[in-house]
Amino acid sequence: MSDASEHPKKEEEQELTPEPEEQSDDSSEDEAAGDTQMDFLRNLFSSTLGLGSADKVLDELSLDGVARYIKSGKCKNILCMVGAGISTSAGIPDFRSPGTGLYANLQKYNLPYPEAIFQIDYFKQHPEPFFALARELYPGQFKPTICHYFMKLLKDKGLLRRCYSQNIDTLERVAGLEGDDLIEAHGTFYTSHCVSFCCRKEYNLEWMKDKIFSDDIPRCDKCSSLVKPDIVFFGENLPVRFFTSMKMDFPRCDLLIIMGTSLQVQPFAGLVSRVSKSCPRLLINMEKAGQADPLFGLLGFGGGMDFDSDKAYRDVAHISTCDDGCLALADLLGWKAELEELVKREHARIDSQDKTSESKGAAAKASSAPVAPEPKQEE
Questions:
Q1: Rounded to an integer, what distance in angstroms lies between the CA atom of residue 135 and that of residue 142?
Q2: Cα torsion through 271, 275, 281, 283, rounded to 10
Q3: Are 201 and 161 in contact (CB under 8 A)?
Q4: Which of the listed residues 145, 153, 299, 328 has the most CB atoms within 10 Å of its CB?
Q5: Number of other residues whose CB lies within 10 A of the CB of residue 294
Q6: Which among 303, 191, 211 has a CA at the least distance from the CA of 256?
Q7: For residues 221 and 276, what is the distance between their CA atoms, to the nearest angstrom?
Q8: Angle between the 336-368 and 146-156 helix axes, to the nearest 10 degrees?
């Protein structure tokens, strides 16, 4: 499920740490709302008074210009913001594509409306649709894409500060992004918890997998309440770490790469406005996204993307699949062969692990099967 990630508190879009991330309290979100209001006032006054003009960093608003900037050595703190679009080539549907998106294919679950499958109140009353869908899209059935491994390459080269992901498919982890590399803004399947506030017992990925694939509704061993993966449903708060990390990361960012997201879900979408005014922003997506509302653009509000106006100076839109865009950028950087080799090697390793697991499973099944008694020999 690449991007139930795509569904925090409002609408949906679409650390390799053993401990789950805490959920944000009201004060974290109130503080974030206050920051947004302050951003509005700062941008309004800056625009009106002509203050805070930004330097143009890219010599050209194109993928070539971005590549030259990375190669210049001036770019050392890259942030990636990613959504469901980076996982579609792995076979995981996104959420909003007409006809093929997840929301367009939920009729069989007889939901009152598509988003109900990720509504926490609906889940507590009717958990069956969510777990049936989870069985279809469970992590571990898919391999990371070229885009995932491009981010791993950025990490290996010491350029990636962090990846902010809306996805819950765990493919960033599988590709090699760990603990400090990753903010799973909309949670993860990696851990699960009892939904009872009086209990909150934690369960690991394998426990949840066993329950889901045995057609059992996961219930707590301690109190018999439902157990839910630690993904963020509508009506739930984002992890505290999302709010604390963004305050440190985005002011220091010197290149923001946004991939596979329509930038419609807040507060994730608002992150694009948190980098400095001079920070270049590259969008790799099937269509342009995150563009400023024309009225707000006149007021200088929100830092929305500006690809086409006469005032555009830092935003680049590369319209393609995420994999093709990453390959094109890797080619311009001289990394294409290295990226292709990384994908080939890692996919072979995953296939080998899958075969080993299947063999062990078959052996365990055979050893547990009853042995037929040998026929008695006639004397």
A1: 13
A2: -10
A3: no
A4: 145
A5: 9
A6: 303
A7: 49
A8: 110
Amino acid letter for position 216:
D
Predicted pLDDT of residue 27: 54
Q: What is the DSSP letter of 359?
A: H
What's the count of helices (H) and strands (E) in the chain, helices before strands? Answer: 11, 9
| Position 278, amino acid | S
Confidence of residue 21 (pLDDT cuts 50, 70, 90): very low
CA proximity to 86, closest of 166, 192, 181: 166
**301: how many CB neighbours lie within 10 A of its CB?**
20
Annotated catalytic residue within 186, 193, 318, 347? 186
183-209 pLDDT, tens per residue?
A: 999 988 888 999 999 999 999 988 998
Task: Look at the block and give the residue holding tokens 């509005």.
Answer: 40
Query: What does the longest C-alpha to C-alpha distance in the chain come to?
Result: 110
Token reading at 13: 């879009």
Cα-flanking dihedrals φ and ψ of residue 53, to 5°?
Answer: -65, 145
For tokens 């805490």, the residue is 22
Q: DSSP 3-state helix, strand, coil percentages of the chain (rounded to 5)?
A: 45, 15, 40
Position 119, amino acid: Q
Known catalytic residue at 7: no
Q: Write down how long the chain is.
A: 379
Taking 50 as the threshold, does the pLDDT of residue 167 lie above it? Answer: yes
- DSSP string computed for 304-317: -B-SSSTT--SEEE
